[in-house]
C-alpha cells in the first residue's frame, strides 16, 4: 500500500483513507465535498440570521417556534458535517460516526418538524400548549434514538477486547440490512411528520397554511430520498454489481436531504419571521403601540363635532343677562384664546336653571320708587303720606 502512488490531485503525504477528498479521477468525492462545505456555511449563516431576526419578530406565535427552527438548523449543520465521514475511507472512527450519528441527526430534524406540525394542528383548534412543552417533546423524541444508537455503540465497541487486532474493524462489520433496520424509529418519525402536516395545509388562518405546506413538502421530499437510497443501498448496488457505491449512495442521500431541509423549510420560515400578520387590523396594532396618542387624537377629532351650536347658545344666555357696552367693534374671533374648546368652562343645565330662577325671583320682588318732584303728581302718592295744614 505504501508504494502505491497517490491519485491525481492528492499529495504523497495524504493517507489513503482521505483519497476520495482530493482524487480528481473519482469526481463524486470532490463534488459531494464541495456541496457539503457550501451547506455547512449556509447553515451557519442562516443560524446567525435567525438569531439576529429574533428581536424584530412582532408575532408572538411565530416567535415561539424559533427554538424548533434553530434546532433544525443545528441538526442540518451536523448532517452536512457527517457527509465527510462517508466520503473518507472506512476505519473505526468513521464507521462509528456513521452508525451513531446518521439516525441521531435525522431524528433531531424530524422531531422538530413533527412538533411544529403538532403545534399548527393544536393552534387550529384553539390555543395550544406553551413553546417549552413542544421543545421538551422534540427533545424526548430525539433522546429515544440517542439511547438506541448508544446501546449499539456500547455493545459493539466494548464487546471487543482492547488487544484484539480485529477491534478497529469491528465497528465497520455490519450488514447493509442491519444499518437500515436500526433506522426504523427514524422512519416512524418521518411518516408521523408527513401525516401530521397534512391537516395543517387547510388551516383556518391563511398565514399558517404556508407553514403547514413547508413542513409537508419537506417531509415528502425527505420520504422520496429515503425510499431511493434504501432501495439502492439494499438492492440496487448489488444488482448493478457495484457494491463500492454504498458509501457514495449514503453521502449523496445525506447532502441532498440536508439541502431539502434548508430550501423547503428553514429559508422560507426565516423569511416569514419579520413579516406582518395580514389578518391583523392596522388599527389594533396602533392601539397597542400608541394607546395614549390614539385616545387624545380621537377626543380632538370628536370634541368639535359634539357641541358647536350648544356652545354658542349657552354663552349667549350669560351675555343676555348683563349687557356690556362695547366701544370698539368686536371681532367674531376675539373670544378665541388658543385653548382647546374642551378646556373652556361650560355651564351645566343645573347652573342655567339656578341662574334663571334667581332672575325670576328678582323680577317678582317690588322695588322702591322715589317720589316725583312734579306737583302734579302728588295725587299719585298714598293719602296717608299727605298732611293738610290746619
SSE pattern, N- to C-terminal = HHHHHHHHHHHHHH
- What global shape is seen? elongated
β-strand amount: under 5%
Q: Kindly state the mean pLDDT as a whole number?
A: 76
Largest sheet: none
Which structural class is indicated by helix and strand composition?
Answer: mainly alpha
Radius of gyration: 44 Å
Number of helices: 14
Poorly predicted parts: 281-298, 305-314, 316-320, 375-390
DSSP helix fraction: 55-70%
CA-to-CA gap between the ends? 172 Å
| Total beta strand runs | 0
Core attributes:
14 helices, 390 residues
Structure, explained:
The chain is an all-alpha fold and 390 residues long. The protein has helices at residues 27-53, 60-64, 66-87, 92-125, 131-157, 167-170, 176-181, 184-197, 206-240, 246-271, 282-289, 291-306, 308-321, 349-364. The longest helix is centred in the middle third of the chain and has 35 residues, at 206-240.
Give a summary of the structure in a few sentences.
With 390 residues, the protein is mainly α. It has helices at residues 27-53, 60-64, 66-87, 92-125, 131-157, 167-170, 176-181, 184-197, 206-240, 246-271, 282-289, 291-306, 308-321, 349-364.
Write the layout of secondary structure elements.
Blueprint: H1 27-53, H2 60-64, H3 66-87, H4 92-125, H5 131-157, H6 167-170, H7 176-181, H8 184-197, H9 206-240, H10 246-271, H11 282-289, H12 291-306, H13 308-321, H14 349-364
Amino acid at each position: 500500500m505504501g508504494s502505491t502512488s497517490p491519485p491525481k490531485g492528492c499529495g504523497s503525504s495524504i493517507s489513503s483513507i482521505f483519497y476520495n477528498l482530493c482524487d480528481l479521477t473519482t469526481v463524486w468525492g470532490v463534488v459531494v465535498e464541495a456541496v457539503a462545505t457550501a451547506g455547512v456555511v449556509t447553515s451557519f449563516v442562516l443560524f446567525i440570521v435567525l438569531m439576529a431576526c429574533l428581536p424584530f419578530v412582532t408575532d408572538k406565535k411565530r416567535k415561539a417556534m424559533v427554538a424548533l427552527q434553530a434546532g433544525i438548523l443545528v441538526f442540518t449543520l451536523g448532517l452536512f458535517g457527517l457527509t465527510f465521514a462517508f466520503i473518507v475511507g472506512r476505519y473505526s472512527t468513521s464507521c462509528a460516526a456513521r452508525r451513531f450519528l446518521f439516525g441521531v441527526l435525522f431524528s433531531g430534524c424530524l422531531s422538530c418538524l413533527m412538533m411544529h406540525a403538532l403545534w399548527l394542528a393544536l393552534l387550529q383548534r384553539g390555543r395550544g400548549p406553551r413553546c417549552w412543552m413542544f421543545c421538551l417533546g422534540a427533545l424526548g423524541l430525539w433522546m429515544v434514538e440517542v439511547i438506541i444508537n448508544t446501546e449499539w455503540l456500547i455493545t459493539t465497541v466494548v464487546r471487543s477486547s482492547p488487544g484484539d487486532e480485529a477491534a478497529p474493524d469491528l465497528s465497520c462489520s455490519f450488514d447493509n440490512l442491519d444499518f437500515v433496520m436500526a433506522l426504523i424509529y427514524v422512519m416512524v418519525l418521518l411518516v408521523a411528520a408527513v401525516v401530521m402536516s397534512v391537516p395543517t395545509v387547510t388551516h383556518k388562518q391563511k398565514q399558517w397554511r404556508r407553514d403547514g405546506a413547508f413542513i409537508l413538502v419537506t417531509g415528502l421530499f425527505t420520504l422520496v430520498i429515503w425510499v431511493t437510497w434504501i432501495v439502492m443501498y439494499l438492492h440496487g448496488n448489488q444488482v448493478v454489481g457495484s457494491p463500492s457505491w454504498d458509501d457514495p449512495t449514503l453521502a449523496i442521500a445525506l447532502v441532498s436531504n440536508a439541502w431539502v431541509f434548508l430550501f423547503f423549510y428553514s429559508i422560507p420560515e426565516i423569511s416569514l419571521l419579520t413579516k406582518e400578520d395580514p389578518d391583523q387590523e392596522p388599527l389594533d396594532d396602533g392601539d397597542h403601540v400608541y394607546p395614549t396618542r390614539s385616545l387624545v387624537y380621537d377626543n380632538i377629532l370628536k370634541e368639535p363635532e359634539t357641541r358647536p351650536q350648544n356652545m354658542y347658545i349657552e354663552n349667549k344666555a350669560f351675555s343676555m343677562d348683563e349687557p356690556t357696552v362695547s366701544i370698539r367693534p368686536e371681532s367674531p374671533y376675539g373670544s378665541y384664546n388658543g385653548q382647546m374648546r374642551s378646556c373652556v368652562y361650560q355651564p351645566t343645565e343645573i347652573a342655567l336653571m339656578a341662574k334663571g330662577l334667581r332672575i325670576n325671583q328678582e323680577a317678582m320682588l317690588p322695588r322702591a320708587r322715589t317720589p316725583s318732584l312734579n306737583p302734579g303728581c302728588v295725587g299719585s302718592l298714598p293719602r296717608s303720606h299727605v298732611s293738610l295744614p290746619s
